[in-house]
Design a protein that fits this description.
globular, alpha/beta, single chain, 7 helices, Glycerol-3-phosphate (1)-acyltransferase
């Protein structure tokens, strides 16, 4: 019964938020704060899923400073947990296929997000260069999931290099964003699904002298360790950081 109520409430939220979001985008299409506004709408309905979300932001993260945010991507429910941590002036880099989702795809595009064609390397590179250009020219931040897909309980997957190339090209710092493990934690038919912690870590710097692949590997290890600490704090039995994914 609880699951049915939650599904109905989420469906109503999707309908209302999409209509409201499209209305906002018609007034101010591609506005720099659209993504943060809509993300916070989604983040505020985590209570429907019976989740308590705590967001911790390192004091070194400065407002109105562009960054490349990199976060772990676990499942579709990240939309209701991770979204609340998105800062103003941030856009995301999503796959091109999103635009084919009725209404949501149009909202995603009009919000100012960038879409990447992963099947076309030349177009993908062009999109990444455009992202770096927007960072420098419009003082925007870019939010990315460097795993490139949802992990679905497989731990923190190996990172793709796109986010690191963008940070290097735009000459901005990167901010690792780590969310405690939610795999098998959220049950639609359970009233209380516990707590989720999101840790926005201190900015890290990638210089031209660094090996991008080694830097990415070190960053992944850093994030896996932080996820493990969050899981230990929450008493989670399932810890993403202790599952070894092949490099």
């Amino acid at each position: 019964m609880i699951a049915v109520v939650r599904i109905i409430l989420l469906a109503l939220f999707f309908i209302v938020s999409t209509i409201a979001g499209l209305a906002v985008c018609l007034v101010r299409p591609f506005h720099r704060n659209n993504v943060a506004l809509f993300s916070h709408w989604y983040g505020r309905v985590s209570w429907i899923l019976g989740i308590s979300v705590e967001i911790r932001r390192d004091p070194a993260i400065q407002a109105n400073t562009p960054y490349v945010f990199i976060a772990n991507h676990q499942n579709n429910l990240d939309l209701f947990t991770m979204s609340g941590s998105v800062l103003p002036g941030t856009v995301t880099l999503g796959k091109k296929s999103l635009k084919y989702i009725p209404f949501f795809g149009q909202l995603y595009w009009l919000s100012g997000n960038l879409m990447i064609d992963r099947n076309n390397k030349e177009k993908a590179l062009s999109t990444m260069l455009a992202a770096a250009e927007r960072i420098t020219q419009q003082n925007l931040s870019v939010w990315m999931f460097p795993e490139g897909t949802r992990s679905y309980g497989r731990g923190l997957l190996p990172f793709k290099m796109g986010a690191f190339h963008i940070a290097l090209e735009a000459n901005v710092q990167m901010v690792p964003v780590c969310m405690s493990t939610t795999h098998q934690q959220i049950k639609l038919n359970r009233w209380n699904n516990g707590k989720v912690i999101i840790q926005m870590m201190a900015p890290i710097t990638l210089s031209k002298e660094d090996s991008i692949r080694q830097f990415a590997k070190n960053t992944r290890q850093l994030m896996a360790g932080q996820i493990g600490l969050l899981d230990t704090e929450l008493g989670n039995d399932y810890t993403a950081s202790n599952i070894s994914a092949e490099e």
